[in-house]
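Still learning. Any example?
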Amino acid sequence: MTALLIGTALAVASLCFVLYPLFRTDISVAPRTTAALGSQRSAKPRQSHAVDALRELEFDRETGKISDSDYEPLKARYTEQALAVMRAGTAAVCEKCGPRPERDAEFCSNCGAALIS
């Protein structure tokens, strides 16, 4: 009987220890702002993201993760997007509408789709 009480007390104590951080109110978490995300994006040029996507696609094809029939349309699409980003310079690019004049936008002002960064 004593072992059962000690075991239960240890289980409750360990549960309280594990759950304590979830119920603390004195810790404030800073909200994630888009300005912080923007500085991370600007650290790496947009052209580099497009080239990285093409390299990853090529690697996936070579390792057998993507078939040739899936590879061709994806390569054409990613190449078109990379060229659009390179032609647009630093402007954001919408997959449907093309380069957009808004530099800090995350969504297209014309159709509402997510912009390619």
Notes: The longest strand covers residues 93-94.
